[in-house]
Amino acid sequence: MNRLFKIFAASVLAATASLAMAQDKVVYHIDQAATQGLKGLRNIRNHMDTAPDTKIVVVTHAEGVDMLMEGAKEEKSKTEYAPLVSALKARGVRFEICEITLKNRNLKKDQFILDADYTPSGVVRIAQLQARENYAYIKP
Known about the structure:
The protein is α/β, with parallel strands linked by helices. The chain is 47% helix and 21% strand.
């Protein structure tokens, strides 16, 4: 009986330790660069400043892809997105562009900054990250 208790206690401790060591994972969903772009990048920067080990994927589709275009700037402040994206990419943040959006809007991959990656469908990617990989969902 004493041995069974020790085995049980060791199992509980091991499970608790593995949960404590689990990496936070978050998907940021951006579908409107004009209202979510700069705010989203600032949220992500603050997120990384507070929890630098977080695995973050930014999925863009519809008008959200506009923030990842070469030379794109925030309308009011004229802040250029590319340097902010590059700084976050250097910290491990992944930026993905929906290829369905590219097709629907007649956009080409060479119109986008090099720090961006592509996904066949932004909406499907978000769903997969949440369901299969246990990502938390944030929409700035």
